[in-house]
Amino acid sequence: MFRRLSQAAAARSTGWFGIIVPAVYATLVIAVTLVVLADSLFVAHDDASLMGVWLILVTLPLSGASLSGLSGLESLLGEMPQPLKSVLFYLATTGVGLVQAWLLRLATRGRLRESDVRSRVPVS
Asked: Which keywords, in A-to-Z order, does the entry hold (predicted)?
């Protein structure tokens, strides 16, 4: 696995930067999701916890659009039970965060190096 990562990093102009940055962001999104989920499931609060705000902040700017889509879905379908709202919140924000990690990968991967471009072109 590490050999393939090294080969992929060597083939691009940005090198390891295009692999590490999106991987760290995706790991951050998953870690924050697990912390917020653990807080909502296992910690008793007298008032509402604001831990979900961290998940929204980590996954901005697309999380704003997904959450407004969720509120539009609720107005379309009517009142939803609270467990369903929670599941949709976690799915929407985590999914949007992983999509942003993929977009970050596309933005930071760089061009193929000239030597790799020539080696990939079939010679007839």
From this structure: Membrane, Transmembrane, Transmembrane helix
Packing angle between helix 2-11 and helix 17-42, nearest 10 degrees?
Answer: 130
Please count the residues of the chain.
124
**For residues 66, 67, 69 and 72, what is the CA-based torsion angle, rounded to 10 degrees?**
180
Distance, in Å, from the CA atom of 72 to the CA atom of 80, rounded to the nearest integer, reads: 12
Round the average pLDDT of the chain to a whole number and report it.
Answer: 79
Task: Identify the pLDDT of residue 80.
Answer: 76
As to burial, measured by CB atoms within 10 angstroms (0-12 exposed, 13-18 middle, 19+ buried), residue 75 is: exposed
What is the per-residue pLDDT across 54-103, written as a single tens digit (0 to 9) for each? Answer: 888 998 888 877 777 777 777 777 777 877 888 888 888 999 999 999 99
CA–CA separation, 47 vs 32, rounded Å? 21
- By the 8 A CB rule, do 98 and 26 touch? yes
CB 60 within 8 A of CB 51: no
Q: What's the farthest any 2 CA atoms get from each other in the chain?
A: 73
